[in-house]
């Protein structure tokens, strides 16, 4: 019996994981520059955490959630996105308290789960980097979060990017727009897709996000939310635009953009790429927005919030051309099985001084071991044979220059750092 991984999942193997580690290191560096700190929340939560925050009519809740009953009869779900769990943690841990700075800024990195049809850049287990900032309503923060998303993608080496923004306004905006949308769409009722017929009754805004061709044609003539903004909502949006202009961040406004989750208001944004790997058209790699009612929705005090999620697999497609080369400080070559004990001890002693060491376990010929050393980009090889065992020395070779010299075991055990630095100095002479 042999098994295959579940559909829509991936094994990230050595050879690929180096690129993931690089992405994570770059992510942490950029998040730190903007003063975001890491938060780690459970991979599963009570189902309601997601259904209340994403909204009952969202695709995520209606079609894509990995939900299950646990053995205690509780309805749970694997997280489909990061924000809901972070907001739950923010409320539960009372991070809105006066002892915490505002905005309270956190980032996360980790797997998300959605039951989707797998294809390139779309999996059932996928990964996001994301940020959330709580407690500040200023449009300057909206602009900073967009700048962060854009910096992050650039630092990761993503190209052909464009920033697209829109506003969903405040509750009064939504109410006026909602009515206008229903008035416009009702005459088309029978022509709408089955999904959109349901949306018309429950959440007409979501029809703007429909992937159905006929729905999209109908939507083209629909009223635009930008014409329904209250003066406050319009001022917020125009301030965000002003800050983006000041930062030199180019953007487009897409008045039909609504985003997949119910909780957004005011500024929403997506960063897309039309890099050739996405064969044809722009693909969204990072998306987010403001969600001023969400903390209250999950039982906390009225608290504004804003954030984004970035799809790591999609960004990875853009990073594929990058090669990661690693080097190995030491490869220990053993000429004879009798040298194994000494080699294990030396490797152990050098590793304890903070340097990576590899050695042979197959009893292969020296030539084959030197080949392995070269393949691993070893900087130094340490050779031990019968003679070296007797004299308690090794032959150290600088692989770049070919220079060789004998070094005593005792020195390797106690003083490797200095030796390593001296031996590699030779490279620069
Ligand atoms: P889409 O319209 O492509 O389904 P979405 O609106 O569902 O995207 P969000 O919930 O905004 O996506 O998630 C933010 C980002 O996470 C997306 O822009 C994308 O890069 C990534 N993402 C979302 N779903 C998947 C998935 N199933 N597999 C891989 N990446 C995903
Ligand atoms: Mg989706």
Class inferred from helices and paired strands: alpha+beta
What amount of the residues lies in strands?
15-25%
- Which term fits the overall shape? elongated
Query: Radius of gyration, rounded?
Result: 28 Å
The CATH superfamily of the largest domain is identified as: Bira Bifunctional Protein, Domain 2
EC number: 6.1.1.21
Enzyme class: ligase
GO molecular function, one term: histidine-tRNA ligase activity
Main location: cytoplasm
Report on the structure:
This protein has 429 residues and is an alpha+beta fold. It folds into 3 domains: 17-170 and 230-319, Bira Bifunctional Protein, Domain 2 (BirA Bifunctional Protein, domain 2, 2-Layer Sandwich), CATH 3.30.930; 172-225, no CATH class; 328-428, 3-Layer(aba) Sandwich (Rossmann fold). It contains 16 helices and 16 strands. Helix 12 links the parallel strand 12 (328-334) and strand 13. It is elongated. The structure holds adenosine-5'-triphosphate and magnesium ion (MG). Belongs to the class-II aminoacyl-tRNA synthetase family. One of its GO terms (molecular function) is histidine-tRNA ligase activity.
Descriptive tags:
Rossmann fold, 16 strands, 3 domains, binds magnesium ion, binds adenosine-5'-triphosphate, Histidine--tRNA ligase, eight-stranded mixed beta sheet, 429 residues
């Amino acid at each position: 019996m042999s098994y295959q991984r579940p559909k829509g999942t991936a094994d990230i193997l050595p050879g690929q994981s180096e690129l993931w580690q690089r992405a994570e290191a770059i992510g942490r560096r950029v998040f730190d520059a903007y003063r975001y700190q890491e938060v780690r929340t459970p991979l599963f939560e009570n189902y309601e955490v997601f259904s209340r925050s994403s909204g009952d009519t969202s695709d995520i809740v209606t079609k894509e959630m990995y939900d299950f009953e646990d053995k205690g009869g509780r309805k749970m779900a694997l997280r489909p996105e990061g924000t809901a769990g972070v907001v739950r943690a923010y409320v539960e841990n009372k991070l809105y308290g006066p002892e915490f700075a505002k905005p309270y800024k956190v980032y996360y990195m980790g797997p998300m789960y959605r039951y989707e049809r797998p294809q390139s850049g779309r999996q059932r287990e996928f990964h996001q980097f994301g940020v959330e900032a709580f407690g500040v309503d200023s449009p300057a923060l909206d602009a900073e979060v967009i700048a962060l998303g854009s910096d992050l993608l650039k630092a990761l080496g993503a190209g052909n990017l464009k920033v697209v923004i829109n506003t969903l306004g405040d509750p009064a905006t939504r109410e006026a727009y909602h009515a206008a949308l229903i008035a416009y769409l009702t005459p088309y009722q029978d022509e709408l897709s089955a999904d959109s017929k349901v949306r018309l009754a429950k959440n007409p805004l979501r029809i703007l996000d429909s992937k159905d061709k006929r729905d999209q044609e109908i939507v083209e003539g629909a009223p635009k939310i930008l014409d329904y903004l209250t003066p406050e909502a319009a001022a917020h949006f125009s301030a965000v635009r002003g800050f983006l202009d000041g930062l030199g961040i180019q953007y487009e406004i897409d008045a039909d953009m609504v985003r997949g989750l119910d909780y957004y208001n005011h500024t929403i944004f997506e960063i897309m790429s039309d890099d050739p790997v996405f064969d044809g058209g722009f693909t969204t790699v990072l998306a987010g927005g403001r969600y001023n009612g969400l903390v209250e929705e999950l039982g906390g005090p009225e608290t504004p919030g804003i954030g984004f999620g970035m799809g790591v697999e999609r960004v990875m497609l853009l990073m594929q051309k990058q090669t990661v080369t690693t080097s190995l400080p030491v490869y220990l070559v053993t000429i004879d099985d009798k040298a194994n004990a000494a080699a294990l001890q030396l490797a152990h002693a050098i590793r304890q001084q903070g340097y990576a060491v590899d050695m042979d376990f197959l009893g292969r010929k020296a030539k084959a071991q030197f080949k392995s050393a070269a393949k691993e980009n070893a900087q130094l090889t340490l050779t031990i044979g019968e003679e070296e065992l007797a004299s308690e020395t090794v032959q150290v070779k600088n692989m770049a220059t070919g220079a060789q010299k004998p070094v005593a075991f005792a020195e390797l055990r106690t003083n490797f750092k200095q030796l390593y630095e001296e031996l590699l100095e030779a490279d620069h002479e």
